[in-house]
Amino acid sequence: MRTVTPDYWDEACKHLAKRDRVMRKLIPQCGEGQLQSRGDAFTTLARSIVGQQISVKAAQAVWDRFVALMDGAPTRVLPAAVAQIEATVLRSAGLSARKVEYLLDLAQHFESGKVHVRQWQQMDDEAIIDELVAIRGIGRWTAEMFLIFHLMRPNVLPLDDVGLIKGISLNYFSGEPVSRAEAREVGDAWAPFRSVATWYIWRSLDPLPVAY
Fold it and tell me: Which part of the chain is the HhH-GPD domain (predicted)?
């Protein structure tokens, strides 16, 4: 499947290295790599629901069984195809009753036009988050990951992300506990490229590029 990378990455790295001593050190250490967007909006969100509270390996196994329920086991899962499957059949893929409800609600939101996918490029981050968190099973963190990894928005600061808070603690506060306000203050200095800085903070904890 085709991957897309953001056109602002080099500019963001120069900006962050100039403005922030930690970024000046981290960016060269992390080597090549940048954000990549894969798949389409519905598939990305459906995968995030399937993967909630289970391991990556388990999530992949359930996803493969879920996709196999569609005709021809497509790489891109369509809302209409999901909406037509009975809840009991979806359960047979290893999905909990709650996740089945979430997936059907997600499909209904896309099918009915309650989410304005075609307008997202023109909408601001908070407006998109508001649309997404209205879907059952999608909270603010998932919506922010979607903004970063799918829409590749450059200035998202996901303060509910455990890795971001841990990385700020280690890189800026010598491992001392960090309050949300302190993390926000560090992040505000990264604007307008807070997503890029967040990605490098994640890389400082795990050298493998983060994918979502």
Answer: 50-206
Residue 37 phi, psi (nearest 5) = -105, 130
Q: Looking at the predicted structure, is the pLDDT value of residue 1 above 70?
A: no
Say which CATH number the domain at 112 has.
1.10.340.30
* Shared-domain flag, residues 90 and 112: yes
CA distance 1 to 40: 10
How many independent structural domains does the chain possess? 2
- Residue 10 and residue 50 in one domain: no
Predicted pLDDT at 74: 63
Degrees (nearest 5) of the Cα angle 102, 154, 78?
30
The CA–CA distances, whole Å, from 166 to 160, 170, 173, 184, 185 equal 11, 6, 10, 13, 15
Cα separation, 71 vs 4, in Å, equals 27
